[in-house]
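Key result, reporting period 2: structure in, sequence out.
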């Protein structure tokens, strides 16, 4: 961990990143100069530039909450579960991947009929209530971008299921609405935070700040339910293929959210944007790319990271840059040679090629003081939007 401190910064930056990009660093400096930022800014080893705040960053604030420091995919997170199955074959994996694609809508697709009759209680939440009908049809769908369903194997060749998904369009609607409200409010009150930093903020003492927190918390529940429903679909598919299958206890965690916590003796609002909670003995998930390992980890409760760790490998190349610069045939060949049923079929898929991501082994090495590795998982089959 490196401490970055210059005359232009109000607070220091604690960085676990070895290859920090210029834009990411500048965004972290902007965070450090927020008048309500607390103690220091933490950059996880997968950090890269985002919108307003780096993805893979942790920000603690006093009294203020920032929609862009949570992001548009509120509650996005990971789910993983171990099975007792060890006798799978490449052909069997191909059939299972095909069945998953037939069962779970991906990309911009929604369901024609909802999997559940109603959402959790939400009549007190204006934005959720407005979008509730559409949200019901989004439950049990994967989405696009870096969201995925993976079949994986561990050290003992046990089959695992892993899901990465979030709150779908519901989270984006809520994030965009409250960010716009925060921008207007900050202009009216002459906030000292420059508008160009895209860090519009809301007081938690205000009615609108409290309402954003409530709607954000609903999205976290919604995203977990979304992953649970997809997992049920996958379980049913696996039971058809392996009648004797049994499932271990599942892990279901988020990495885009803000929450009131106590750190360094103060009650603060911890914003984790692409960062996973890693309190002492907390079990977490850190995925790689579709061509690299993923990890089940145990948190060490490092106070300097605000009890956080990375949420994945982190991008080393932007989506458009990956499509321009990566070689399609080379990326496909590398995955084919490893026997991975992957999702790289055309140039438009290259934004999710393994080469677009940081080396997950380096990322894990850089956060040995944040987490302990419990299990390594290797990809067998991948479903993406």
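The corresponding designed sequence is given below.
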């Amino acid at each position: 961990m490196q401490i970055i401190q210059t005359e232009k910064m109000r607070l220091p930056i604690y960085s676990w990143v070895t290859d920090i990009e210029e834009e990411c660093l500048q965004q972290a400096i902007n965070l450090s100069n927020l008048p309500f930022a607390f103690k220091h800014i933490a950059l996880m080893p997968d950090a890269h530039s985002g919108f307003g705040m780096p993805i893979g960053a942790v920000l603690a604030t006093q009294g203020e909450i920032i929609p862009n420091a949570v992001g548009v995919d509120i509650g996005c997170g990971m789910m993983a579960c171990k099975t007792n199955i060890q006798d799978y074959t490449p052909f069997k994996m191909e059939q299972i991947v095909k069945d998953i694609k037939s069962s779970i809508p991906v990309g911009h697709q929604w369901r024609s009929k909802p999997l559940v009759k109603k959402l959790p209680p939400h009549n007190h939440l204006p934005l959720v209530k407005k979008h509730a009908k559409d949200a019901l049809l989004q439950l049990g769908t994967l989405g696009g971008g870096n969201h995925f369903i993976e079949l994986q194997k561990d050290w003992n060749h046990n089959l695992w299921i892993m899901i990465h998904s979030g709150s779908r369009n519901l989270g984006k609607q809520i994030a965009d609405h409250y960010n716009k409200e925060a921008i207007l409010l900050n202009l009216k009150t002459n906030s000292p935070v420059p508008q160009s930093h895209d860090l519009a903020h809301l007081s938690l003492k205000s009615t609108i700040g409290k309402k954003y927190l409530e709607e954000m918390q609903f999205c976290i529940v919604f995203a977990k339910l979304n992953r649970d429903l997809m997992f049920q679909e996958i379980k049913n598919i696996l039971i058809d293929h392996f009648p004797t299958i049994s499932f271990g206890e599942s892990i279901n965690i988020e990495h885009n959210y803000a929450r009131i916590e106590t750190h360094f003796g103060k009650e603060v609002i911890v914003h984790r944007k692409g960062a996973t909670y890693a309190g002492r003995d907390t079990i977490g998930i850190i995925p790689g790319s579709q061509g690299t390992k993923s990890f089940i980890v145990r948190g060490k409760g490092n106070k300097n990271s605000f009890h956080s760790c990375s949420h994945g490998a982190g991008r080393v190349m932007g989506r458009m840059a990956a499509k321009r610069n990566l070689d399609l045939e080379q990326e496909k060949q590398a995955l084919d040679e490893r026997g991975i049923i992957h999702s790289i079929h055309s140039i438009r898929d290259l934004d999710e090629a393994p080469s677009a991501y940081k080396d997950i082994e380096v990322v894990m090495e850089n956060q040995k003081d944040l987490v302990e590795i419990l299990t390594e998982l290797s990809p067998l089959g991948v479903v993406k939007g």
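The chain has a mean pLDDT of 95. The longest helix spans residues 207-241. This case is discussed further under Risks and Mitigation.
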